Amino acid sequence: MALFVKDPSVDVLAERLMRLKKVNKTEAVRIALENEIARERDKPDLVERTAEFVRQFKARANPQGGSPADKEFIDSLYE
Predict the structure, then answer these.
(1) Against a cut of 0.70, is the pTM above it?
(2) Which residue ranges are recorded for the region named Disordered (predicted)?
């Protein structure tokens, strides 16, 4: 099956990769597509990214360093 690319900027990118890798244009396109697929596949999913965000947020919050929100503190907010 043939792949026809009508965008000249894509052709320029393929030629740049072709020269860098010293391969033909077909191989350059194959390399680029395989690398992009691998990058997307290895990207953490939304749950993993959210869990990492929460871990970083908790680490920055430093819950042991704050003052307790006891009755006296809460009452002082309304005096």
Answers:
(1) no
(2) 59-79
